[in-house]
Amino acid sequence: MKKKYVFLNGNILFSVFLLILGIIFFVASFEINSGIMQVDGSVLLPRVVSFLWLVFAFVVLIDSLKNANNSSEKKGDQGGFLLTLGLLIFFLFLLILIGFKFASIAYLFLQILVYTPRTKRNYLGITVVSVVLPLIIYWVFNSVFGLLLPKGILF
Amino acid sequence: MITEGFLSILNMQTLIVILIGVVVGIIFGAIPGLTSTMGVALCLPLTFNMDPVTGIALLIAIDVGGTSGGLISAILLKIPGTPSSVATVFDGGPMAERGEGGRALSIGIVYSFIGTVLSIIALIFIAPTLARFALKLGPYEFFAICVFALTLIGGLAGKNIFKGILSGIIGVLCALIGIAPVGGAKRFTFGLEFLENGFNILPVMIGLFAISELLKMGFERKEEETITVIPYRMHGFGFSLREFGEQFVNMIRSALIGIGIGIIPGIGGATSNLIAYSVSKQHSKCPEKYGTGYMGGIVASETANNASIGGSLIPLLTLGIPGDTVTAIMLGGLTLHGIIPGPLLFRTSGVLVYGIFGAFIIATIFMLVVEWSGIKGFVKLLSIPKNFLMPVIFLLCVVGTYGLNHQISDIFVALLFGVFGYFMTMFHFPVSPLILGLVLGSVIEENFVRGMMYANGKFIIFFTSPVAAICLSCTVLYVLFYIIRQLSERRYSGRSK
Are residues A95 and B403, on separate chains, in Cβ contact within 8 Å? Predict the structure, then answer.
């Protein structure tokens, strides 16, 4: 008999995650002080909404468990997803450290590499695009529109 | 006031902004993976330095261009540029394959224009009447309407009503995070300073639409991706006067479907094009022709999706409840300019309202002219590889998000919602109820708090209002009806096994 590792089903895991979040928010709703004046709605509504979150998250979890054998997960490249997520987090840190201009150049170069199949990588083209476009974007929004962009704490 | 409103947009700056908006919208609509919602979210920060009419005119122009632009890739690539153009593929693609791509494009552009014009007429006549009625509504009614609207969205936006409603609830709770507007209580901040101001709609939108798309691209990256554009040649309008006459009833019916669906909060062009196509096929004398490159299929889809634009503006301007995700962003834009949409808008900012109507008309005319004359340029854009385009779009999103408050925490929030939105989409949780919940959350809270004050803390008093009682009862009945239907479907499938 084939064992079904139901708990590894992504749908169920996500439903459990939402249920846990619901519990956290519901418990936190009891710690809300009414503030400088007693207002019935501003404390009650968060409690009601977080309770409804809990209820519906539970219903969705039960529904997901019942349909665990029928659902099929989309197949794809987990590595591509993780690399993209890693690059986005890396970009955020670079943004704080070295500012928009240089963080964008690094991010754009690496992200295009991740997306482009090995057989189609034109490193010169990717480098030119990765350097020129962020500089254009920086110039247009900073100098033309007068928008402030992160400068970084190292420079 | 009407003349003043229309004249307020007839200046060089506003007209240029509308033109740019239409072009940007068509580009976002034409390229698969980008949507008019993304375009509107991206351009929202640019409106901060504009006057309210010009700012909203830009956003409407992008929506008009984007909704129509989806037909270009739907016909020439057989891939819908936006969810509003899914049904256009069914007949536009086959028509292009047999060498009539130019004819399909012409039909699509003309009927997009007609659909938008009909929705403008509906907007101009229905909105003021509805606003006068809405003035009689109070906090009990607004609270109940918003709750019903969210439930409806949750049920209609996806296949599973529980996932849809949960998505809406998550959005409402996100709206409650931060310092309470009345009383000053800190809610769900967990000691984190950046949560004290709550979540701004822009980083959430950027996260849910742009960043989740980036993550999706990483997950779906393929070894080989070639884009083949079907050759085409444009000749005139693409149809004769006789064919126009034959499709007249189809056109009117599809426009009414688009306007009606646009008015219902939460659903818009993405649904109306499919419903209009299906209804058109059912009522046609030759249903077997649908799907083979039949003009009627393109007429239904493109008239309905563009008609939804005007329809979705009706609840936004009259009740302050967005009709779809684009109008939800517009609501955010109006609020940032200090304008609160709702029944009083016609009295306090009548010039603005009629200015918006005027901008809508101008954007529609520009859409027809620009799409017609610039079709070659837009088609060339389809060849830009997405692996270059999407990361660049992300950088533009970062600029827009940072430009809001100059806080890195906003980019962090966008990233957070990007990851959350990615998993929501993967596991079939609809995203639009979350956005509408976030936007309506403050409206729900304001009316709930005010209502509870009037009712001396007794919620049962809400039911003394007939409108509120009907809406709240419909909410409960709607959910119960779905549960009963699900149980009976499962019982039936169990018996047949």
Answer: no
